[in-house]
Design a protein that fits this description.
heterotrimer; A mainly alpha (about 290); B mainly alpha (about 280); C alpha/beta (about 475); A: about 290 residues; mainly alpha; MetI-like fold; B: about 280 residues
Chain lengths: ~290, ~280, ~475
C-alpha cells in the first residue's frame, strides 16, 4: 500500500485528546502561573508577573534543599533495601514447589493497599501507646523508640513502611526472572565446582540485571512521588524530618496557598520526573 | 547424604518464608482486628495483645450513624464507572498503537506520550483542575471525579494493553483482513478474545488504582460523593481523638477488593504491575 | 504528525489557560431590601429570629446551605437544625468538613468567585486571611437591623469578626480556652497530698500551680512506675508539642511569663516577630526541663489535638494541657477511657507564674456569610438564632458545645451539666484571644518546629528562638510586599 493508512487515528485520537486536554492544559497553566506572584488566600499580596523570581526563591530556600536531600535519601535507602530483601525472598521462594502461588498472592497484598491505608496502619503500629512494635520492643527489653514522633527516627519509620509495602514488587520481578533462567546456565558452573555464592554473583544476578533495572527505575519514580503515607502520619514533621519533596510542595500550595511558588516547585518536580522517566521508558522499550 | 541436605535446606526455606510472612502480615492483622475492639481498649498499653471483648459496635455505629455505606457506594461507583470508561477509550487506542499501520517513529512517539503521562505528579495540576471544574460546573460531582480518574489512568491502561495486544499474533489478523474483515472486526473478534487474561489484569489494576486514589478525591469531593480513602484520612480528626477501631474498619473495607483480587487473580496482576515485564 | 500535535497543544492551551487564569472575580450583588422588623416587647432573641425568618421565607422554597465542621462545635447545632427547619418552613442543607480539609476547600471556594454555600463556619486559628477576603458579606447593616448583642458575649468577642476596615464579617459561634485537666483521684488522695507536702514543703493545690515551681514539682512527683514492672508508665504531664499544635503550648506558657506590654508573638502592624525575649526564654527553659528530666510522656513530639485525649484518658499522664472541648469526653465515666468521670478527672486553669497575673489563650469558631448568597438576610437570622442566649444555653446543655454568652456561663444548670465551663471562666480578665495574624498558621508551624528542634537537643533555646524569629520575619516580609 503506497498511501499512508490513517485509520489508526480514529482509534487512538480519542484517548490521546482526552489525555492532552486535561493533562497538558493544567500543566501549561501551572507553568504560566509559576511566573506570577499569586497567593490564593492572602489577597493582600498583589497578583502580578515576577518572571523567574519564584524559581530563584525556591532554589535559595533551605527548606527546598532539605526536602530534596530527604527525598534522595529516602529513595536511595528504601529502594536499595527493597532490592536486597526482594532478591533474598525470591531466591528462597524459587526453590519452593508447594504453595508458591499462595505465597505470591499474599505478598501481592501490600503493594495494592491504598497508600493512605498503609500510612494509617503505620500510625497505629508505631504508636508508643497502642502499637505492636513498641510492645515487642518492651517484651524484648529493647530501648523505647518514639518512631514517627522523634525527628531522628521519623524518616526511618517511613523507610521501614515503604520497604514493607514494596519489597514484594522486587520479589515478584526477580522471582519471575529466576524462573526464566535456563538450567543449562548452572550446569556449566556446577561442573566447574562453583559454590552457591559464586553461582549467585557470576550467573544469577547478572542475568537478572534487566529485572533489577526495571524494578529500580519504577520504584525510584514512585518513591520520589511519595506523598500519602507521609502526609497522613507526620505531615512532614517533626521539625521537617520527613518533609519530602511532594509534601513540601503540597504545603506551599495548600497550606500557605502560595500558588506561584507551589507551581514553580511542581514544574521543577515534573522536570526531574521527566528526566528519570525518559530513562525508564528507554530501558523498558529495550526489553520489550 | 545429598537428600538429607536438601531436606534440611527445604526445611529452612519454609521456616524463613513462614517467619517472613508472619512479620509481613502482622501489621495488617492488628489493623483489621482493631476494627473489632473499643477505642479504650486500643489505648490501653496493657491490652495490646489482649483481644478479649471483641465487638461489632463500631461497625454498627459507622453504618447507622455515619453514612459509611454511602462512602462505600461512592467508591464503588467511581471506580467501576471510571474503569469501564477507561477501557472504552484505552482498548481502541492500544489496538491502534499495537496493530494498525503507521510510521515507525509515530508509533514510538505515541507510546512514549502515553507512558510519560504517568510521570505527572498530581500536585502540579490540581489547582487548575479545581478552577476549571468550578467554571464548568463539574466540581463536587461524580461526573467530574470520574472524568479526572479516566484521564489520569488512560495512559497507563493504554500502555499496558499495548503490551498485551502486541503479543497477539498478527498473522491471524492479517489473514482475516485479506478475507475482508475491518480493523474493528479484528479488534473485537480476534484481539480481545485472545488477550483475555491481559485485558482482565489491566481492568483489575485500573479498578484498584481508582479505588485507592486519594489526593484528587480529597480536593474534589464533598460528603455526597466522598470516597473511602478520603473518609479514612479525615476520620482520624474526629472528636479530638484518633479512633483506632474506625481506622481498622476503614482499612479492612479498603483492602477487601485488593485481597480478593490478589488471591484469585495474582497471575494476571503480576503481569500488569510489572509493566508487562513478567510474562506468565 | 508532530505539527498536528503542536496544533492540538496550542488549541488546548488557548482554550484552557485564559479560562483558568481569571480567578477571583467576585460579582457584586445587592444586599436586598431590608425591612424594618422590630422585636416585640419581651420577645426572646431566638423566637424573634425564627419569626422574621419565617416571614421572609413564606411562599418561597428556601434552602439554606451551610458548611459546618465535623467536630464538636457543630454537632450540637446539627441536632437543633430540625427545630429551625420546622419552625421556619425552610430546609437546611449542610456539609460537614474536617478541619484538615476546611481550610483548603473554603479558600478554594472563595477564590473561585462563585461560592456554593451561604454560611461557613470557620476556625479562628486559621481565619485571618479569610476574614480579609472580599468574598465575605459585610454584616454591619444586618447587625444594625437585628442586634446580636455583642456585649452579652464573652469578653472581646465582638472584636473577633472585625476585618481591618472595621466592618464585621464574622459572628462568633463557639468559644473555648486552653485549660488543664488533672487526675483528681491522685491530687486529692490524702496519702499523696501528705507525701507531696513532706517532699516539697508545701501543699499541692491544682487550682494554683505555677509553671516555674509547683507544676514542675507535681510533674516530678507523679512520674512513677505504677505497676512495678521496672518501667515508668505514668508521667507527670503532657502538652501539645506536635507540629502546628506546639504553638499553643508555647503561647499558653508565654502569656504567663510576659508582662503584657506588647502585641504577643508578632506585631502585625510592623510586620515583625517580637517574642524573642527573656519571658520566652524562661518559659521554654522550664518546659524543656520537664522533657529532659523525663516528666513528660516520651512521645511528646507527636502529641497534638487529636492524640492528647488518648494519652490522658489511658492513664499515661497525671496532668494535661489543651483546649477544653478536648476534655469533655472524659467528664463522665466512660468505658472508653480508663481515666474518666468526676471522681478521677478535675478541670482547672492552666498554671501561672509566681508573682504574675494568670493568663490563658482563648479561641473559637466563627461563622461568615458568602457575599454571593441569594438569601443573606435569612442566613444572618439563622446565625442570630444560633447565637441567641436561649439556643446558646440549649447547645451548652448537650455535650461538647462551648457557649459564647456570659449568661450561659453564669447559669448554674449549665455549670452542673458541664464542669469544664467553670474552669474556663476562671481568671476571665487574663484571657487573650489567639492573635489575628495573617500568617498565624505559618507562625505556629515555625514555632512548633523550633520547639521540636529544642526538645530534641538540636538547637539551644537561644538559637531556636532566634531561628524562629528569623523565619517569621521572612513570612511577614512576604505578606507585606507590594
Amino acid at each position: 500500500m503506497a498511501k499512508k493508512d490513517r485509520t489508526w487515528m480514529i482509534y487512538v485520537f480519542p484517548a490521546l485528546l482526552l489525555v492532552l486536554l486535561v493533562g497538558i492544559g493544567p500543566l501549561l497553566y501551572s507553568l504560566v502561573v509559576s511566573t506570577f506572584q499569586f497567593n490564593l488566600a492572602k489577597l493582600q499580596i498583589p497578583f502580578r508577573f515576577v518572571g523567574l523570581r519564584n524559581y530563584a526563591r525556591l532554589f535559595t530556600d533551605p527548606g527546598f534543599w532539605n526536602s530534596l536531600g530527604l527525598t534522595l535519601l529516602f529513595v536511595a535507602v528504601s529502594v536499595s533495601i527493597e532490592l536486597v530483601l526482594g532478591t533474598i525472598l525470591a531466591l528462597v521462594l524459587a526453590e519452593v514447589e508447594r504453595g508458591r502461588s499462595l505465597f505470591r498472592s499474599l505478598f501481592l497484598i501490600s503493594m495494592m493497599i491504598t497508600p493512605i491505608a498503609v500510612g494509617l496502619m503505620g500510625r497505629f503500629i508505631f504508636s508508643d501507646v497502642s502499637g505492636i512494635v513498641n510492645w515487642m520492643f518492651r517484651l524484648l527489653g529493647l530501648p523505647r523508640i518514639i518512631w514517627y514522633g522523634d525527628p531522628r527516627f521519623a524518616l526511618t519509620t517511613m523507610i521501614i513502611l515503604d520497604v514493607w509495602e514494596w519489597s514484594s514488587f522486587v520479589f515478584l520481578l526477580v522471582l519471575a526472572g529466576l524462573m526464566g533462567i535456563p538450567p543449562e546456565f548452572y550446569e556449566a558452573a556446577h561442573v566447574e565446582g562453583a559454590g552457591f555464592l559464586a553461582r549467585l554473583f557470576s550467573i544469577t544476578l547478572p542475568t537478572l540485571r534487566p529485572m533489577y533495572v526495571l524494578a529500580a527505575l519504577i520504584r525510584v519514580i514512585d518513591a520520589f512521588k511519595e506523598f500519602d503515607k507521609i502526609y497522613i502520619m507526620t505531615k512532614g514533621g517533626p521539625n521537617f524530618a520527613t518533609d519530602l519533596f511532594s509534601i513540601h510542595n503540597y504545603m506551599i500550595a495548600f497550606k500557605e496557598f502560595n500558588i506561584g511558588m507551589g507551581s514553580a516547585m511542581s514544574i521543577v518536580f515534573l522536570a526531574m520526573m521527566f528526566g528519570i522517566g525518559t530513562l525508564l521508558v528507554r530501558v523498558l522499550t529495550r526489553e520489550a | 547424604m545429598a537428600m538429607r541436605r536438601s531436606k534440611t535446606a527445604a526445611g529452612f526455606r519454609y521456616l524463613f518464608i513462614v517467619v517472613a510472612l508472619v512479620i509481613y502480615l502482622t501489621p495488617i492483622f492488628f489493623q483489621v482486628i482493631a476494627g473489632f475492639r473499643t477505642t479504650g481498649a486500643t489505648y490501653d498499653p496493657d491490652k495490646i495483645v489482649n483481644f478479649r471483648g471483641l465487638t461489632l459496635e463500631t461497625w454498627i455505629d459507622l453504618i447507622h450513624h455515619q453514612n459509611f455505606l454511602s462512602y462505600l457506594r461512592n467508591s464503588l461507583v467511581a471506580s467501576v464507572s471510571s474503569t469501564l470508561i477507561i477501557m472504552l477509550f484505552s482498548i481502541p487506542a492500544a489496538f491502534g498503537l499495537a496493530k494498525m499501520p503507521m510510521g515507525r517513529k509515530t508509533r514510538a512517539n505515541l507510546s512514549f506520550e502515553f507512558l510519560s503521562m504517568r510521570m505527572l505528579p498530581g500536585i502540579a495540576v490540581i489547582i487548575p483542575i479545581f478552577v476549571a471544574f468550578k467554571r464548568l460546573g463539574l466540581l463536587y460531582t461524580m461526573q467530574g471525579l470520574v472524568l479526572l480518574y479516566v484521564v489520569f489512568n488512560i495512559p497507563l491502561a493504554t500502555w499496558l494493553l499495548n503490551g498485551f495486544f502486541k503479543e497477539v499474533s498478527s498473522e491471524i489478523g492479517e489473514a482475516s483482513r485479506i478475507d475482508g474483515c475491518s480493523y474493528f472486526e479484528e479488534l473485537v473478534r480476534i484481539v480481545i478474545p485472545l488477550s483475555g487474561p491481559g485485558l482482565l489484569s489491566v481492568t483489575i489494576l485500573t479498578f484498584i488504582f481508582t479505588w485507592n486514589e486519594f489526593m484528587f478525591a480529597s480536593v474534589l469531593t464533598m460528603s455526597a460523593i466522598r470516597t473511602l480513602p478520603v473518609w479514612a484520612a479525615y476520620t482520624t480528626q474526629q472528636h479530638y481523638i484518633i479512633s483506632y477501631p474506625v481506622l481498622g474498619i476503614s482499612f479492612t473495607v479498603m483492602i477487601v477488593p485488593v485481597v480478593v483480587f490478589a488471591l484469585t487473580m495474582q497471575r494476571y496482576l503480576i503481569r500488569g504491575l510489572s509493566f508487562g515485564a513478567v510474562k506468565e | 504528525m508532530s505539527r498536528k500535535k503542536v496544533v492540538l497543544l496550542v488549541l488546548a492551551a488557548l482554550v484552557l489557560v485564559p479560562l483558568m487564569l481569571f480567578v477571583g472575580c467576585t460579582k457584586q450583588q445587592g444586599s436586598g431590601g431590608l425591612s424594618g422588623y422590630k422585636p416585640k416587647s419581651g420577645e426572646a432573641m431566638d423566637v424573634y429570629a425564627v419569626r422574621i425568618a419565617k416571614e421572609l421565607a413564606k411562599g418561597k422554597d428556601i434552602t439554606l446551605r451551610a458548611i459546618l465542621t465535623w467536630d464538636a462545635p457543630s454537632e450540637a447545632l446539627i441536632k437543633l437544625i430540625p427545630k429551625w427547619e420546622a419552625a421556619t418552613g425552610m430546609k437546611v442543607k449542610y456539609e460537614k468538613l474536617s478541619t484538615l480539609e476546611m481550610e483548603t476547600k473554603v479558600n478554594l471556594e472563595l477564590s473561585s468567585g462563585k461560592p456554593e454555600y451561604d454560611i461557613v463556619q470557620y476556625d479562628k486559628y486559621i481565619y485571618k486571611p479569610v476574614l480579609e477576603n472580599p468574598g465575605l458579606l459585610n454584616l454591619d447593616p444586618y447587625i444594625k437591623k437585628y442586634d446580636i448583642d455583642f456585649a452579652g458575649m464573652m469578653t472581646g468577642m465582638g472584636e473577633w469578626g472585625k476585618a481591618d476596615d472595621g466592618s464585621n464579617r464574622m459572628l462568633p459561634f463557639y468559644w473555648c480556652t486552653y485549660t488543664m485537666v488533672y487526675r483528681k483521684d491522685l491530687f486529692e488522695d490524702p496519702k499523696e497530698k501528705a507525701a507531696f507536702q513532706k517532699k516539697y514543703g508545701y501543699e499541692l493545690d491544682p487550682d494554683n500551680l505555677t509553671f516555674d515551681k509547683s507544676y514542675k514539682d507535681a510533674a516530678e512527683f507523679f512520674t512513677r512506675d505504677t505497676n512495678k514492672d521496672g518501667k515508668t508508665d505514668l508521667w507527670g504531664t503532657v502538652e501539645l508539642f506536635a507540629p502546628y499544635a506546639a504553638g499553643d503550648a508555647f503561647m499558653g506558657r508565654y502569656l504567663n511569663y510576659w508582662n503584657n506590654d506588647k502585641p504577643y508573638l508578632s506585631d502585625a502592624a510592623a510586620g515583625k516577630a517580637n517574642f524573642n525575649d527573656d519571658a520566652a526564654k524562661a518559659a521554654l527553659k522550664d518546659a524543656l526541663d520537664l522533657v529532659k528530666k523525663g516528666y513528660m510522656v516520651p512521645e511528646i513530639l507527636q502529641t497534638d489535638w487529636a492524640s492528647i485525649l488518648g494519652v490522658f484518658g489511658s492513664g499515661r499522664a497525671a496532668m494535661a494541657l489543651c483546649y477544653t472541648p478536648t476534655w469533655v469526653a472524659v467528664q463522665s465515666p466512660s468505658s472508653e477511657f480508663k481515666v474518666s468521670g468526676p471522681e478521677k478527672v478535675g478541670f482547672t486553669h492552666i498554671p501561672g507564674v509566681t508573682g504574675k497575673p494568670r493568663s490563658t489563650i482563648s479561641s473559637g469558631w466563627l461563622s461568615f456569610i458568602n457575599k454571593n448568597s441569594p438569601i443573606p438576610e435569612i442566613a444572618y437570622l439563622f446565625l442570630l438564632w444560633a447565637g441567641s442566649p436561649q439556643i446558646d444555653k440549649e447547645l451548652a446543655m448537650t455535650t461538647l458545645h462551648n457557649p459564647v454568652r456570659q449568661s450561659t456561663y453564669a447559669d448554674p444548670e449549665v455549670l452542673a451539666a458541664n464542669p469544664t465551663f467553670a474552669a474556663e471562666a476562671m481568671h476571665k480578665e487574663g484571657q487573650y484571644a489567639v492573635p489575628d495574624h495573617l500568617i498565624y498558621a505559618e507562625e505556629q508551624l515555625i514555632l512548633s518546629n523550633a520547639m521540636a528542634a529544642m526538645v530534641s537537643g538540636k538547637m539551644s533555646i537561644e538559637a531556636g528562638l532566634a531561628e524562629a524569629e528569623k523565619q517569621i520575619n521572612a513570612k511577614w516580609a512576604e505578606v507585606k510586599q507590594k
